[in-house]
Design a protein that fits this description.
By secondary structure, this protein is mainly alpha-helical. It has one domain (5-201): Alpha Horseshoe (Serine Threonine Protein Phosphatase 5, Tetratricopeptide repeat). The protein contains 10 helices and no strands. It has helices at 5-21, 23-33, 38-51, 53-58, 61-75, 80-94, 101-119, 129-141, 147-159, 184-201. α8 (129-141) packs antiparallel against α9 and α8 (129-141) packs parallel to α10. The two termini are 19 Å apart. The mean pLDDT is 91.
Length: 204
């Protein structure tokens, strides 16, 4: 798959704008079971990414992803900065310049492993991993997944965190009271996948 400067710019811009547009929603989710700053932090990070959009769109895909990861680590507060930064850095380190469907799956798997290590967490603990893992399975099952399938998997996976009890992160301090609320990190991850699906469908 060839990702030219125009497509790369569109992907980065669409993902960033999607997160920024839902910042208030993410903050409300985090107010229920976290520190209440997830939306604010993610907005700040992706506004910083947008400020570098012309430069990022001219880099190779791996280098652009690594630059985004570094920017998120530097600008997003709390645990989200290191975790999302690790995700993008991991993708950038593992992806070739012109990735195949198989290479994308392998890179996503590698990035997920890095996030697990960074957060000392795993699937089933009410985190962003509970969206990333099903998305990875979808990509593995079909190297060229349909956008609507990717979107549906991500949205359903975020919804599936509602009945979970949080094991990791700030929400874990609430114990049973974390049940009944969607994980903010799962929601923001699903938003990114939705944005990518929109670009794949040509909606942007």
């Amino acid at each position: 798959m060839t990702v030219d400067a125009r497509l790369q710019k569109m992907l980065i811009e669409t993902v960033a704008q999607q997160v920024i547009a839902h910042a208030d929603e993410l903050t409300r989710l985090d107010q229920a079971i976290g520190d209440g700053d997830h939306g604010i932090n993610m907005r700040r990070g992706f506004e910083a990414v947008l400020s570098e959009l012309p430069v990022l769109s001219e880099k190779s895909l791996p280098e652009a992803l690594k630059a985004i990861g570094t920017k998120l680590v530097m600008t997003v507060g709390g645990a989200s900065g290191p975790l999302y930064g690790t995700l993008f850095l991991g993708l950038g380190r593992a992806l070739p310049v012109e990735p195949s469907g198989t290479a994308i799956a392998e890179a996503l798997a590698s990035a997920i492993d890095a996030v697990k290590a960074r957060g000392k967490s795993d699937v089933g603990q009410k985190t962003m991993l509970d969206v990333l893992a099903p998305v990875l399975e979808e990509v593995r099952s079909d190297p060229h997944p349909l956008p609507e399938r990717l979107r549906a998997v991500a949205v359903a996976a975020a919804e599936a965190t509602i009945p979970m009890k949080a094991i990791r992160g700030r929400a874990s301090f609430l114990g049973e009271r974390s049940i009944g609320h969607m994980d903010p990190g799962a929601r923001s991850t699903a938003l990114m996948v939705e944005a990518i699906a929109d670009v794949m469908e040509g909606k942007t």
